[in-house]
# Entry
Amino acid sequence: MKLLVLLPLVSAATLALTGCGETTVEDVRKAYGAMSDEKLQAEALHQRVECRAATQDSDKPGSPCSRANLAEEMAESRGWCWGPYAAANSDKSWLRCADDVTKSAQAKATWFAATQSGSCRESSLIEAISKVLEHEGPWNVKTSFSKEGFFDVSSQLKDGTSYKVRLYPGCGSAQMVYIAKPGDEGGVSVAAPLGMSPRDAGDLYGFDVRNCSAYSFGGGIGCGMGYQAGMQPPIRLSDGFIPCSVDRPVQFDFQPRRGMVGVTCSVTAEDMSAFEQRMAGAFGEQQRASDGSRRWQLGGYTVGSVEVVVLGKTLRRVSVYQD
# Structure
């Protein structure tokens, strides 16, 4: 009768590097370099687990700790990071390094807060914590990063409610309105600078208020600009997607005492399709109306897209309006 012998599972790289002589860094690097991104990520996790269990030789090139460090370094060189950086380890996974907004945000010493008047001022973590502690409640201040890279300081109060102060990495993000499905604060949001004054919007987006046009009704004005890459996006989704197409016009609409009530971006067919797919996935599918528009009503705001033909030319726009 033959006995079944169970062998412990080891990574492919461990098998490849087993042999006579001392394993060198070059040996490990060569083996990892031949791996796909997925296999390299799995190897990094495997070796990190082995590293935590190791008791000696942690500095040798062939040790689990050294292999884990090298695998993570090589994965990062390919654009993959174990994150988000500011999250608890149990909440981390492999993601594109460029998508980890918490890494750059956590290193910031200066933050900004939105004021009740809709403007922006410089703030700090110490100030935010002090603001939270002004309210009667237990000593349970918590800090966390949002998916957009905002820093939240919060506390559960004695009456069962919670109080939160949100800090922003810049004035541009502090002055935006973040529109989400009612009751779904942690879900997908659409950001737009609604409520901002014409002067503040002109300073942020680079247009001269003196060149804006007055409407013949309602006493409002309209201001335009061309969207350029690298500037503050007039419309942005919480996953980082910007529907406003580069080198296309952007229209801001203002009304007295209400500030900005709407922003509209001219977009390409590709950007409009990507925007509609994201909106449908987050807020439900909306059929295109007879006027060529799709609209999502989100708690006092309307987010929409429209495709129309004018004088034989197809025009596509994405807009966010305060109802």
